[in-house]
Amino acid sequence: MEVDEDNRSDFEKEEEEEDDSVSDLLRDRFRLSAISIAESEAKRSGMEISPPIVACIADLAFKYIGQLAKDLELFAHHAGRKSVTMTDVIVSAHRNEHLAGSLRAVLYW
């Protein structure tokens, strides 16, 4: 097995490329879904929304979800767990009381 200057094997490079490919696919699918939702909501509300704004909303939402995933992982790790719980999700929403209330309603329904 060949190892290059940065001490990564060909297998490790292939795994990294595959992970990047999966991440790109997830990002693209998320972006398409966010665009579809934004356009549907605009139409339902009788509004027009420009394509650059829709793309910006989709990109911001994807970045937010990425940060949320990192926060959830940290909350679970801090609690000594390997998996995320609904409580972690509620704690992550503490800055948005409406969202936190909705999540609590689902949890305690």
CATH class call: Mainly Alpha
Q: Helix and strand succession?
A: HHHH
Distance between the termini: 55 Å
Number of helices: 4
CATH topology: Histone, subunit A
Specify the overall morphology. flat
Name the structural class.
mainly alpha
Q: What's the Cα radius of gyration?
A: 19 Å
Query: For the record, what is the CATH homologous superfamily label?
Result: Histone, subunit A
Describe this structure in words.
- By secondary structure, the chain is mainly α.
- It has one domain: Histone, subunit A (Orthogonal Bundle).
- Helix content is 74%, strand content 0%.
- The chain has helices at residues 10-44, 51-78, 86-92, 97-107.
- The protein is flat and about 55 Å long.
- Residues 1-22 are annotated as: Disordered.
- Residues 1-11 have a biased composition (Basic and acidic residues).
Summarize this structure briefly.
This protein has 109 residues and is mostly helical.
Sequence-ordered SSE layout with sheet pairings:
Blueprint: H1 10-44, H2 51-78, H3 86-92, H4 97-107
Helix pairs in contact: 1-2, 2-3, 3-4
Family: Belongs to the TAF9 family. CENP-S/MHF1 subfamily.
Biased composition (Acidic residues): 12-22
Keywords: DNA damage, DNA repair, DNA-binding
